[in-house]
## 1
Amino acid sequence: MIELTKEKPNIDESAFDGAMYHEGVVDTRHGTILYLEDVSVSFDGFRALNQLSLYIDAGELRCLIGPNGAGKTTLMDVITGKTRPDTGSVFFGQTIDLLKMDEAAIAEAGIGRKFQKPSVFEALTVFENLELALKANKSTWSSLLFRLNGEQRDLIGQTLETIGLTALAGKRAGILSHGQKQWLEIGMLLMQEPLVMLVDEPVAGMTHQEVERTAELLLSLQGKRSIVVVEHDMEFIRSIAHKVTVLHEGSVLTEGTMDEVQNDPRVIQVYLGD
Ligand SMILES: Nc1ncnc2c1ncn2[C@@H]1O[C@H](COP(=O)(O)OP(=O)(O)OP(=O)(O)O)[C@@H](O)[C@H]1O
């Protein structure tokens, strides 16, 4: 079981199915941190997700691939509360019903998302961006009075090391390369101490060297956090993947190692072959 290290999230008690929730703890005793079962989403009669079931283990790094329109973004939107499914269930650990929570409560409970386009504050330094991400946890009033304590400085220091930007901590984020901005944004997400990180196309537009560094970064996080990566870059997926889930027409087509899915004739037909 992974313990939430931050304060007890402010979750409506009605989101809990039964009395299994212990203060500050997401119940992963069965090894699974995200349960999606029979999830369907329709837009004007078009099924973007079609009875999709997916299970993510605590601490795993899962790669999600699939052709354009397969439903990857919609799946992320359902997990983070942006889109409500028509049918199905979505649980965080065994007991937290995400369908009863809004986007803010889901984020606060420990599910963080990094969008494809970096949105760092260019006028602020790298350090200040991380500081701001830490403050975003606080209410507006307490963030006005907020001063970093030693523990929080250490957390920023560790995060700078993790994302490889320690030497640039005092530089304005606007001067960073595209890859460095992406790492900073991953760092900002880490400041929220999420248990689950959803990462959308992290290496799009990166140089080869930056792609390699991003692979190392994500691999260094597995075990500590559960990470779901959506990416089209197959070489990158191969370098990080243990288990790959292939989506097609809103459902899971197959799951397995990169070799297994790449040699699956159905995958070759719908995705890798085109
Ligand atoms: N808000 C919406 N309204 C109508 N249709 C939508 C909406 N959002 C997604 N869709 C449709 O649902 C399908 C799944 O889209 P989604 O963005 O989830 O796919 P994806 O796998 O993320 O694709 P890509 O790899 O291109 O990002 C697509 O056909 C898309 O056009």
## 2
Amino acid sequence: MSTQTVTIDRLGALGHGIAHTSEGPVYVPHALPGETVAIARHGSQGTVISTAKTSTDRVAPTCRHYDPDRDACGGCSLQHLAELPYRDFKRELVVAALAAKGLTPEVGPLVACGPGQRRRTVFSVRRTEKELLLGFNRAETNHIVSIEDCPVASPGIMDRLEQIRRVAAALASAAGAFRLAVLETLTGLDLAADGLKPLGDKQRRGVVEAVLALRGIARVSANGEILVEPQKPVVDFGGVLVSPPPGAFMQATKEAEDAMAALVLAHTGKAKRVLDLFAGSGTFALRLARTARVHAVEGEEKSLKALDQAARNTQGLKPVSVEKRDLFRRPLTAQELKAFDAVVFDPPRAGAEAQVRELARSGVKKVVAVSCNPLTLARDLRLLADGGYGIRTVVPVDQFLWSPHVEAVALLER
Ligand SMILES: C[S@@+](CC[C@H](N)C(=O)[O-])C[C@H]1O[C@@H](n2cnc3c(N)ncnc32)[C@H](O)[C@@H]1O
């Protein structure tokens, strides 16, 4: 370890300040471009000891758990940056990833999401000898910082933090940390624990008793198995009600989901036969089915069942068909794609390379790419552009407030 004074040049992709020094770049969390800071340096990592020059873009963080000098929660990394440069940073993540692949399409302004809008969050939980820890990991460690409030999570979650803690306490055994995903639904909170040791009968009864004594908990599951379900969890996809399976993928912020869905619907417009790939529980498919026949393809059987059931239970939709398929190993071929006027794809962080190679050879007129990873999005868009698609626009969406993650929707046409 050495101490050094450096001036920060720019922000890196994780939101850390980067200073270029004679020994190479050093990454300094919580430092901003233009700031001069004394750091303790360990290789390419720096920790701020004191600040000699402060950026005018620096603001006081909103959250009391966001304090690098104390036991800081690692859930957020950009609360110290003022709103406008913060939005530029997020948008630039998308612009830079595209530019690195030689793509310079129009990139719209960031669709902003505000505090208190996250309806899905994943807590880390561990019982220690003294207490139950429930919160988020300190950045890049397994150390759990217990939280009392979180300005990112929705009031529907934070107002029930005590209930969540009681369920977590009933689930927690003496050994081992686990993750507890909390989804706010129309009928109450859907809690899904994973990474738990198998529960014994006594512990199961404890969870059921705890939940039945509480209000506001719709369901608790552990490692995919439902333990107790006083209410079926229900979410609303543009007016279609869906009961998702435990721990299913769900867009983390409802406002971001609505903004992305509006872009999908506007671009697919008058298409009569739409293919929704990586469809999840039907976030886009069920909205699209108001005006088009939809074929929804997804790898998770339970999500697909929820989608199918919702389509059957809803009046006034066009026909929806579903298919369980591994789209990495067995993408829809260019030949199969002939049946569709428009394709929407929303893959996990790895992107959709195999599927995109088929799309690039297809004649599908309109394509929408939804992505939570600008790097794989850029790779996939490059393949589509090389296959003759024009990128009309790319819209970055701030689904993950104050984190370095950004969602984006790209609209393409041939
Ligand atoms: C980012 S989510 C999007 C889900 C949905 N479009 C939504 O907005 O809620 C990605 C989806 O891809 C599915 N998935 C992951 N790998 C897959 C694969 N190899 N083949 C098919 N689906 C996959 C996941 O189960 C998940 O539902």
